[in-house]
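ok, trying the design again with the full structure, not the truncated one.
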């Protein structure tokens, strides 16, 4: 009996002395996505596609805060030139839409009319008591404003009477509450708007040639070869756009 006890104790000590070894989980790849504020909806799509990928940790950052990031960097860009040494991958398209208050009976603007408003030559609407046009735009350094001005004939100079907004959300809020307001936002900002705001704004029809100029690809710019996780992320984005 004593021998049996000794054998049992030996087995117990042996079992307790062999701890279970748990394999360490691989460290997720850290990726930063830099984007201009007007491409926020595209950045949100990035976040949605990153969620089901356990090998990837995605962090969003505005394009003005890109120095010394502790990880690889991808950049969202709307059309334009590709930086030397970089690769570009298209994940969709974006277009500028001019919007007015829903109570404004105007349905369309010719390119000439739009130019006259943008440069301050036309300052009143042609309906009712001819209310004053409150034109909204973006800061001079904003690439969305640069893109618009390059698309309009003659690279017009913005009227000094224009009101400057920090982002598309500010323009949406202003247009939805002001009968005389006119502004422009990326089309993606009009998708999924709350019903209250959506009912208070409407899109103005433009000439086809201008519509084409105001439509550009949304690009992901990378200065390094894509990792497996990054490639899977772009595939998800392309599929969600389709």
């Amino acid at each position: 009996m004593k021998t049996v006890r000794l054998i049992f104790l030996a087995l117990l000590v042996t079992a307790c002395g062999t701890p279970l070894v748990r394999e360490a989980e691989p460290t997720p790849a850290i990726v930063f996505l830099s984007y201009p504020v007007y491409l926020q909806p595209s950045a949100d799509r990035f976040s949605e596609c990153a969620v089901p990928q356990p090998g990837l940790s995605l962090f969003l950052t505005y394009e003005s805060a890109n120095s010394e990031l502790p990880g690889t960097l991808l950049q969202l860009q709307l059309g334009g030139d590709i930086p030397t040494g970089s690769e570009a991958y298209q994940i969709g398209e974006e277009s500028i839409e001019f919007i007015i208050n829903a109570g404004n009976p105007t349905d369309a603007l010719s390119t000439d009319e739009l130019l006259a408003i943008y440069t301050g030559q036309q300052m009143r609407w042609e309906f009712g008591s001819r209310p004053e046009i409150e034109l909204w735009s973006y800061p001079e350094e904003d690439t969305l404003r640069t893109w618009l001005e390059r698309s309009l004939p003659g690279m017009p100079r913005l009227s000094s009477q224009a009101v400057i907004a920090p982002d598309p959300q500010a323009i949406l809020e202003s247009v939805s509450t002001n009968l005389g307001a006119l502004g422009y936002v990326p089309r993606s900002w009009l998708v999924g708007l709350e019903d209250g705001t959506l009912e208070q704004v409407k899109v103005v029809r433009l000439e086809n040639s201008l519509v084409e100029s105001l439509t550009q690809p949304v690009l992901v710019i990378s200065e390094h070869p894509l990792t497996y996780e990054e490639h899977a992320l772009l595939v998800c984005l392309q599929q969600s756009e389709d």
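Keeping the full-length input from now on. The mean pLDDT is 86.
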